[in-house]
Structures are given as structure tokens and as C-alpha cells.
Amino acid sequence: MQTPRTGTTASAPEHDSSTLQLDGGEADRPTAVAAVPATPAAIPGDSSATADPRRRTVAAAVAGLAFAVLLLTALSLSIGAGEVGAGGVLDYLLGRDGARENARLSLVVGDLRLPRTLTALLVGAALGVAGCLLQAVTRNPLAETGLLGVNAGASLGVVAGIALLGFDSGYAYLVCAFVGAVVASGLVLLISGRRGGGSPMRLVLAGAALGATFGGLTSVIVVNSAETYDRFRFWVLGSLAGVEGFGELGRLAPVLALGFVVALLVARPLSALALGDDLARSLGHRPPVIRTVVAIGVTLLTAAAVALAGPISFLGLLAGFLARALAGALLLAVVLSAYAGQSDMGVGRTFRAVFGQGDRFDVLLVQKFRLGRIVAGLTAGAALGLAGCLTQTLARNRLATPELLGVNDGATAAVLLSVTLSATGTFGAWWAGPIGALVAVIVVTTVSGGLGQRGYRVLVVGLAMSALASAITQVVLSRRSLSSAGSLYVWTSGSLNGRSYSVAVPVLIGLAVLVPISLAVARHLGVLRFDDATASSLGSAPGRIRALALLLAVALAGLAVGICGPVGFVALASPVIASRLAGPLRVPLVGSMLTGAVLVVAADTLGRIVLDGVELPVGIVTTVLGGPFLLWVLLGRSAATRV
């Protein structure tokens, strides 16, 4: 008799613990025994009374959502071109009075409205289920499907199909988008799963890195083909306007069905995973396998949805050798940039033109255009490098950049809106960059709960803000003529083309004001690498220092975007490279500025010489090279210990 009693008492707390955590962790609730239906007495009336209000609330919510779906479905079928009202739609659906034989009703309802409505329902359901799975596996209610790089992969697939394979039909776009989305998601899974990975943070960072790389490759193709961009710019907005008939939906229906089946199969394991990896293992589950299966289900659902409807989407002083090394690299980058270009000017002629000697055309080309462009690149790079160093020091993570807070995309959207609303339609409104950046970071910090929240929450909100600002940018571009949209798109890729001395003046003034302030708070920034208690004991005010440093970073990044567009990954790479040279005990503000200046000028030079007769914007070059750099940092030994 003693043995079974011992077994019973040993198993009850284990089951009790899991039930309490699922119910919200109320330690004083005695109803956990109800989870073990050993006897009829184990089902008390209080438990059902407590559960009934919840069930009624859930039932009411489901009923309300179902009614809303039915109402929107009816509106979608009844509203549209063709002057076919609800009565005609109902006649066609019910087959009354020969409505099916009516050619006009068959075209409007059978070939256009009905397929589009059903596609919208399935796309919405697929994205909703995929988002639910991703939020459950990452344990974050702000996670969204774009974190797996699916949208970027689908975009690259469509652009490659248009430009390289000559595709121009909806079904061809469907295949290209689906293949690109699956490849992108698969690569993210492989990268994030290395070295015992699979953690939510690694998944997000790998998706962001690969998405940026694919976005850069997409820009490389689009920027050199007006025809490709003309087709791509409407698809990338995400639309169901091109859905005609059930052909495309029928081809992807098996993929959607498989994704929904996977979602049903992982529902119970995800409930166990919500209790934590250790408890999930004790219940017989394997967390890495669960995450992999969830990612596969998310990929199937999201890739099919994107293929059907397009992407629908969130100072320390430097050592002497460091200053000499960066100064030498900066000088070399300036010399190469002054020499590089589409003209056949040699090195000797370039040097003579720098000092005002030689042919008048050479002097004009070098002094007015190339040197002005170099100065703009140097100032923008220095601002981005300093902004990146401030952000990484604040986050205590060398993978943090203003881009992940939505600063770059917010500034870009603000500048484009100012250009659209201005009478002249030029890029003179550089001031819109800092304003847009400030608005973006205010939204991110407010939604995420403030600067003191966990980095993962801020990161996901920042990515969502970037997606929102990017959508605004795409809408603005779609409203412009092809020639205007093409030039604006080049700028949104990050470009120094046509930039002169006057453009760099705002950033020079900003650096003159903000750099001394950054140097003044250098000691406090170094203390921020420790915890807040240590920083406070050393005489610093962590809250004020964070707010000031974030404001400095946002202003600098916004200024840089205001003059040359979003130049990606410079803010990430500059502090990492500078810290490698300066050592881990320093906050390399000056080194990051010099490194950023070198990187921007070098990338601009590379963009002018890498393809014969074609000039790649500096932002495309940095994005294509920066994605692999982020992956290298992410997969490195030291990054593995931090992420």
C-alpha cells in the first residue's frame, strides 16, 4: 500500500505544476487536481464556474469574427466594377434564372470577384495561422512572418524571373515567388540552427540579415532595368487585383492545405513548449524539432500567400595605431574615389585636377562633382558610424543598429513624403530625415514599453516599424510616373549620385554639434556596458544617458539618410571593425566615425567600377556586402555567446 501512495504523490505535483503554468501561474488555485480525472470528486463546481465566463468570452469572440468574415465576404462579392449588385451575385451563386449562362455575370462574378474573394480569405487565413505559429514558437506577440525572410526571397524570385528569364505572366510570378520564399526561409533555418541554435533571437537576426542581402540583390537587378522595375513596383505592394479565375489558387491549394495540417499537428507540442524547453523535454517533446516543424509550416503558408498576393507585411580615445590605420584607409578610399568614374581620366590627371591644374573639364569634373560627392560620403559615413556605435553601446550588443529600430526606413519615408508634397519635387528637404527617424524611434519605444524592455521585444517592434515605413515608401513610389519613380527608387537604395558640397553642410553642422556631446558622455557610455546598479554606483544616470545617446544616434542617422538615402549596414560594421582595432575596453566613437567614412566612400567607389558602364548606388553595395558580414558576426564564436 505504501508504494502506490508514493507513486501517486510523486506524479501529482508534476501534473499540477504544468497545469498551473498553462492557466497563468496562479499558485493558490486548488483546481489543478481537476486535470487528473481519477475520481468524479475531482471535478468541483467552482472550476466549471470559473471556466464558463472564459468559454463564453471565447465563443462570443469567435462568433463575432465569423460574422465579420461573412459580412466582408458579402461586401467583397457585391462591390466592384461591372455594375453587378448583390442580387446579381446571389442569382449567380444560386444558379437562378439562367444566371450561370449570362456571360457578363460569369465574367464579373465567376472569373473575378469570387476567385479574388476566396483567395483573400485563404491568404488571410494562411498569414494569420503562420503568424500565430511564429508568435507561439518565439513567445512574442509581436513576431510576424516577414522575420523569416520570406518576403525578401519572394521579391528576389519575382525580379529574377522578370529580368533573367523574361517572365511576364501571373502564374510565372507565382512560381518564382514561391521558390524564392522557400529558399529564403530554408536558408534562415539552416543559419539559425547552427551551433545549438534555433533560439528566437537567432531566428530573427538570421532572417533580418538574409532579408537585407536578398533585398540588396533585388535592388541590383531592378535599378538597372526600368521595365523590370515597372512590373515589380506594383507586385511588391501586395495586391489581389491580378487574380483571375481559380487556376492560381488551385495550384497552391495543396501547399496551403499541407501548411494548415502542419499547424494542427504542432498545436499540442507548442502548448508544451510554452512552458519552457526543459519542461517540454520532460513531457517527451523535442524543442528543436518542434521549432523546425513550425518553421516549415510557416514557410508553406507564408510562401503560398506571398506568391498569390505579393508581400503583405514590422567614446573612448583611440590607440595611436588605430588612428593611423583608419586615417590611412580613409586617405586611400578618398584617392580611389576621386580616380574612379566613367571617364578615362588617369591617376596623374586626377591629382593635377585636385589642385586646379590641367584641363578645365578635368578640374570641373574632379573638384565640383567627385570631391563634392566624396565629402558627402565622408560625412554621411561618419554620422552612420557614430550612430551605430552609440546604438550598440546602449543595447550592449554589437548586432544592434539604428536600422533595427526602424530609423532608416522612417527617415526614408519622411523624405519621400516631403518630396511628394513639395512644389519643386527635389531632395532639398534633408530636415525630413531626422524628423522621420525621431517619429519612428518614438513609436518603437512607446509600443515596446520603453528603453528598459528586453532587446528582443524592441527588435521585433523595430522590424515592424521598418515594414510599415517601407510600405509607405512603396505606396509613394507607385503613385509616381515611371521616370520619377525610377529616380526616387535609386535614392531609396542609398545613393551619392549628384551630391555636392552643399548637401553635406547639414551633416557637417550636425557632426560639429553632436560629436562633442558624444565625446562628453564617453565615460558614461563605457559604464553602460555594466548593469544599471553598477553604473549608478559610479555616478552615472543610466536612464538619462540612454535617452541622450539614443537621441544622438537617431539625429545622426536621420541626417545621413536625409542627404544620401538609407545606406545599410555601415552602422553595424563600423563599430565592430573599430572595436577589433581599439580593443574591447574602449567605446570607439571616433574610430567608428572614421571607419564609417571609409566604408561609405569605398562602397561608392566599388559601385562605380564593379560593372562596366553601370553605376550601382552605394546603399546597394553596402547591403549586398553587409548581409554576409552580419551572418559572419552572428555565426562567430563571440556572437554565439551574446545572442
UniProtKB/TrEMBL annotation:
Which molecular function GO terms apply here?
Answer: transmembrane transporter activity
Recorded GO cellular component terms are:
plasma membrane
Q: Where is this region: Disordered?
A: 1-30
Q: Does the keyword Transmembrane helix apply?
A: yes
Q: Where in the cell is it found?
A: Cell membrane
Residues crossing the lipid bilayer are 58-81, 114-134, 146-165, 171-191, 203-223, 255-276, 288-308, 314-339, 374-395, 429-451, 458-477, 503-526, 547-573, 585-604, 616-635
Q: Which UniProt keywords apply?
A: Cell membrane, Membrane, Transmembrane, Transmembrane helix, Transport
SUPFAM superfamilies documented for this protein: ABC transporter involved in vitamin B12 uptake, BtuC
Q: Where is the composition biased (Polar residues)?
A: 1-11
* Primary localization: membrane
Describe its membrane topology.
Answer: Multi-pass membrane protein
Q: Name one GO biological process term.
A: siderophore-iron import into cell
Q: Which InterPro entries has this protein been placed in?
A: ABC_BtuC-like (IPR037294), ABC_transptr_permease_BtuC (IPR000522)
The family assignment reads: Belongs to the binding-protein-dependent transport system permease family. FecCD subfamily.
Query: What is the name of this protein?
Result: Iron ABC transporter permease
Q: Organism source for this protein?
A: Streptomyces parvus
